[in-house]
Every structure is written in C-alpha cells, then in structure tokens.
Amino acid sequence: MHNRLKSMYSYMEQEALDAVIITFPRHVYYLSGFASEPHERFMGLILIRQEEPLLLVPELDREAAFQATGWEKIFTHKDTDNPYQLLKKLLSSSTERVGLEKNYWTVHQYEALADILDAKAYIDISPPLLEMRKLKTRDELERIQHAVRLVQQVLQYGVEQVKPGITELDLVAELEYRMKKLGADGPAFDTMVLAGEKSALPHGVPGTRAIREGELLLFDLGLYAAGYSSDITRTFAVGDIAPELTAIYETVLEANSRAIAAARPGTPISRLDQTARQYIEEQGYGPYFMHRLGHGLGLDVHEYPSIHGQNEDLLKEGMVMTIEPGIYLPGAGGVRIEDDIVITANGVQVLTTYPKAFTVIA
Q1: pLDDT tens figures, 39-98
Q2: What is the DSSP string of 153-180?
Q3: Which residue in 54, 126, 250, 279 is a FRET match for 77, CA 20 to 30 A apart?
C-alpha cells in the first residue's frame, strides 16, 4: 500500500494537485487496504499534498477502517450528517486543483462537491491508477490464483450436479452457494449456466429451462476472494451431440490454444484477438464470433486491457487477462472456452487448469 500511495503523491506533485478524493470502493481498498461497500453513504480516501492520508467513512465503519489501516486520521459521519460539509472542514479553503476518478463520480456527487469547494479545476486521476493496476504484484497474483483455485472447485462441483431435468437456475443456485461455502466473498458477476440453444447467447440469462440430453451446456462463472476476481468458462456436451456442435467445440479449443501461445511480453494485444479470430474465420465460423477475445482481470472482473483486434498496446510482464473465444450458432448452440492468464518474463502462465478437452457429462 505504501508504494501505491507514494506513487499517487508523486502524481499530485507532478500535476500540482492540492487534493485527491478517491471514492470508488475498489480504489479505496487498493490504496488503503480498507474494503467496504458504503452503498448510498459517502466514503472517501482523501490525499492532501504533503500531508498524511485520511479516510472519511460512515460512522458504522470506523472500527473496521482502523483495523484495516491502523491510521489515526479516520473521520466519520452519521446518517443525519452532510458528509460534504465534513469534507469541507478537512480540505483547505485554498484548494484549487482537485483530483477525482471521473468515471465513478455522479452528477449529484460532483454538484455536492462543487457547493463546498471553490476549486478552479477537477483533474481525472484514473490514468495513474490504471497504470498501477495493469501490472500485478506478487501479492496480487497470489490472490488471483487463490480466486482461480476456488472457482475451479466450484465449477467441478456444479458439473457433478448435472443431470437431465435439472434447470439452469438450479445449477446457478448450487454454484453460488458453493462459492460461499468455500470462503469466497461472492460471485464476480451474474453466474451463467446456459443449455441447448441458449448457449448460443453470449450474454444469455439462466432460467427455468431444464437440461436435456443431446445438447451443449455452458458454464460462465467467476468469484471474488481476498479482494480479487477470477473468471472461467467451460462448455460440455450432455450426452451425444450433433457433429457440427463437436466441430465448433474443437475449433474454439484450437483458437483458445493459439491465442495463448501468441501471448508474450512485447506482443501487441491486437495480435491475440487476430490469431484466434483468423483461425475461426478459416474454419468458416467468422460471423459467429462476435465479441472481443478477452479482458483484463484483477480488482475488477473486467478491467484494462481490452483484448481486441485494434488494441496496439504491448503486452507486459504482470498483466492478467482472459482468453475466451467463442462460436455461437443461433438456434443450435454455442461454445466458449475461457482461461485466465498472466504474462510472464518469458511468455505466459495459464492460471486456469480445469480440463478443456471435449467432455460428455450426465
């Protein structure tokens, strides 16, 4: 945490910022170690140039904030207080240049801040935060690996529950219950279990549809553990399936493998997407792969970098991302195979080890 705060203070000096107000809960955690979801209440990490950092949190979170940080400068507000008036007391009247995460401030929050400050400029501080977050430390990688291990156990448990007649929502409930039983903070996104023709919907919504023999079954799930996320997709056959569905499975698997093999430091991110997409197009399924190849993974389940064919940023050691090509045939079924990977000094490490070979279950 100390190095991250040091980087933020250096950025403040560079940009001549008088104060920085960080309110996105994941960034508060990233810089202070205090994790909380304040809901509608105000929570902020306030950095004032050449002063110690401080937290302004709801009164009910004071003890948790102190235990997480050990900081003395923790200020609180009651539900009946106006937190912005308290914030005004913490900031100098000469505060003119203020750093904010512009992607996360609402118009209401901005107007409330503008009412108590006579600042001349509000500077977006997202760039230095994203720059720090894109390269994971050893501790972060260990947390991500822990989240990956847990989600793979959850997936295996879910697969073991599959039988004809069980519904998609039945399996979702089993998976999310298992996450909690294993100690996860909770799902990283809405868990997807999609059967038959619904597996051809990249963002399908599980329902009461019963699972039947002779169709594909797609699991897409992730979880948060120790503040970090995991994300995995595997697709299975329930009994014997049509030859074309087997063919698209093998195509997606090969595209997944080729994209991972292309990942190494110094390679343009675009090349990964292009590698997978070109192979899928060569097999005649180009129109049925309609999303990017993947996304960054860490504090958020979707973060920098975006793995698409026009991103010319270069891969760097410490980047963590998903590789998830897919083919979706309307009315018939779809296949997606998703792995979590980290770029290493010499190439790539695949964090997800759950088997990917074509598998028939139930």
Answers
A1: 999 999 999 998 999 999 999 999 999 999 999 999 999 999 999 999 999 998 889 999
A2: HHHHHHHHT--TT-BHHHHHHHHHHHHH
A3: 126
H/E stretch holding 32 reads: helix 25-32
Answering whether pTM is above 0.85, one says yes
Q: Which helix (H) or strand (E) element contains residue 11?
A: helix 2-15
265: nearest Cα among 337, 344, 209, 188? 344
Residues 311-338, mean pLDDT to the nearest whole number:
98
Beta pairing partners, 98: 19, 122
Please report, for residues 130, 137, 255, 297, the alpha-carbon distance to residue 304 in angstroms, rounded to integers and kept in the order given. Answer: 7, 15, 22, 7
CB-CB neighbours of 213 under 10 Å: 13
User: Is the backbone peptide bond immediately before 38 cis, with ω within 30 degrees of 0?
Assistant: no
Is the separation of the CB atoms in 333 and 212 below 8 Å? Answer: no
Q: 17 and 49 in contact (C-beta within 8 Å)?
A: yes
pLDDT tens-digit series, residues 146-193: 999 999 999 999 999 999 899 999 999 999 999 999 999 999 999 999
Indicate whether 327 pLDDT > 70. Answer: yes
Q: What is the dihedral angle through the alpha carbons of 73, 79, 80, 81, rounded to the nearest 10 degrees?
A: 30
Residue 108 CA to residue 110 CA, distance in Å, equals 5
Question: What is the rounded average pLDDT for all residues in the chain?
Answer: 96
Instruction: Please state, in angstroms and rounded to a whole number, the distance separating the CA atoms of residues 260 and 354.
Output: 15
- In degrees and rounded to multiples of 5, residue 40 shows phi and psi of -80, -10
Instruction: Determine the pLDDT at residue 1.
Output: 59
Q: Residue 147 is inside which H or E element, if any?
A: helix 138-160
- Distant-in-sequence, close-in-space partners of 120: CB < 8 Å, separation ≥ 6: 96, 97
> Measuring CA to CA, which residue among 211, 198, 162, 219 is closest to residue 332?
198
Helix/strand/coil for 21: strand
